[in-house]
Amino acid sequence: MSVPGILVAAPRSSSGKTTVTLALMRALARRGLRVRGVKCGPDYIDPAFHAAATGHPSVNLDSFAMGPALLDAVAGFAVRDADIVVAEGSMGLFDGVRAGEGRTGANADIAARYGWPVLLVLDVSGAAQSAAAIALGCSLYDRRVKIAGVVLNKVASARHRRLVEAGLQRVGIPVLGALMRDASLVLPERHLGLVQARETADLDARLDRLGDLAVEGLDCDAILAAAGGAVPVGAGALPCPPGQRIAVAADAAFSFLYPHQAAGWQAAGAEIVPFSPLADEAPDDGCDVCWLPGGYPELHAGRIAAATTFRDGLRTFAETRPVHGECGGYMVLGDSLEDAAGIRHPMAGLLPVATSYKARKLHLGYRVAHPIGDGLLGPAGLRLVGHEFHYATELTPPPAEDEAFCRVADAEGTDLGFAGHRRGRVTGTFFHLIALED
């Protein structure tokens, strides 16, 4: 589909990609353009901000976890009825895993596949002409990728901007905008990234402020003119639903469901029936399956423990129908959850695992898994690809093969042993599913 796109990326993390992306999205949407957001890589928080800025759903594109057919299906969903796609990168432009060309998970893979030029965000705090050397390196590193221009972020003064622009003029890379150093632009964060869009106070006002800054500081006409590329038509299919009516936990504690999963389920005719454990709601008894996404149950453990209607209803549901939990959902399916203060709260007791947020340790990376037995996600031996990002630890021993959900490896094939748990119709794992393959 010949909908033009632009990828907002940077040489490294914390350069201001999200600020520039949201500002550009809001400014273009104000012009009456149908803007669609894309997040490169395994991020389940930023797409909600994209949706708030544009008024339309955003999706993830991940060149490691998604095969070519699924990538094109998700990209096709993203550009449907759109005038322009604004994609946001993750980490640095070329950062990914060691894998074959086009399958590294790096932003550059997505830019190359769909021909989306890159708008490079440069954090120029502490640098002047040297910023041009970084931009030049990015423009030469991968010939598949075109750098359309740069946006300067955290500019200290008019003089500082002139010095940076002098360096970029020397190497022939256009400056398409600049944002001054402004601490008020920073969105609130917590341990897994930004505070969720649904929890960010005055989000609409914040987005309008960013839109104003884009109008003032970015050359939106030039950025629009630089956009390009295309997405193949009719290639691949979105994920199939695990049931016809799917009860999905959805509130501030359970919100990390990848948009392409929900879009695929609904496109296949399945109905998603949301319920809120924090409001002490049980899964709808008329549903075929129950799905507990990740989120922040560690911040709401006391309320979940006190939600007896939810916990009793979940146990009753699991007696006759499949239940699956991812990351935070997996923790809630366990016996107990220890919060940051060291208080242990009883959970659903459906899986033999106890977790702790007090004993924090970062777990981060892609996971390639093969289920031990047939289940909600498919038959034994199916290849599941997902991503793990959390600080919780398991207080109970690793699962034995007869109680494990799957055997997992990292992105480079290193065996990580058995993971997750299975008991009856209930399964759970710390990784978030992105794609599955027969």
From TrEMBL:
Domain of life according to the entry: Bacteria
Domains: entry comment: Comprises of two domains. The C-terminal domain contains the binding site for glutamine and catalyzes the hydrolysis of this substrate to glutamate and ammonia. The N-terminal domain is anticipated to bind ATP and hydrogenobyrinate and catalyzes the ultimate synthesis of the diamide product. The ammonia produced via the glutaminase domain is probably translocated to the adjacent domain via a molecular tunnel, where it reacts with an activated intermediate.
Protein name: Hydrogenobyrinate a,c-diamide synthase
List of catalytic residues: C327 (nucleophile)
CobB/CobQ-like glutamine amidotransferase domain segment(s): 245-437
Cofactor entry: Mg(2+)
Domain CobQ/CobB/MinD/ParA nucleotide binding stretches: 6-191
Known pathway: Cofactor biosynthesis; adenosylcobalamin biosynthesis; cob(II)yrinate a,c-diamide from precorrin-2 (aerobic route): step 9/10
Recorded coiled-coil stretches: none
Annotated SUPFAM superfamilies: Class I glutamine amidotransferase-like, P-loop containing nucleoside triphosphate hydrolases
Function summary: Catalyzes the ATP-dependent amidation of the two carboxylate groups at positions a and c of hydrogenobyrinate, using either L-glutamine or ammonia as the nitrogen source.
InterPro entries: CbiA/CobB_synth, Class_I_gatase-like, CobQ/CobB/MinD/ParA_Nub-bd_dom, GATase_3, P-loop_NTPase
Positions of the record's site feature: Increases nucleophilicity of active site Cys: H432
The keyword Manganese is assigned to this record: no
Keywords, sorted A to Z: ATP-binding, Cobalamin biosynthesis, Glutamine amidotransferase, Ligase, Magnesium, Nucleotide-binding
EC number(s) from the headed UniProt entry: 6.3.5.9
Miscellaneous remark of the record: The a and c carboxylates of hydrogenobyrinate are activated for nucleophilic attack via formation of a phosphorylated intermediate by ATP. CobB catalyzes first the amidation of the c-carboxylate, and then that of the a-carboxylate.
Reaction(s) catalysed (UniProt annotation): hydrogenobyrinate + 2 L-glutamine + 2 ATP + 2 H2O = hydrogenobyrinate a,c-diamide + 2 L-glutamate + 2 ADP + 2 phosphate + 2 H(+)
Name of the top EC class for this enzyme: ligase
Family per similarity comment: Belongs to the CobB/CobQ family. CobQ subfamily. Belongs to the CobB/CbiA family.
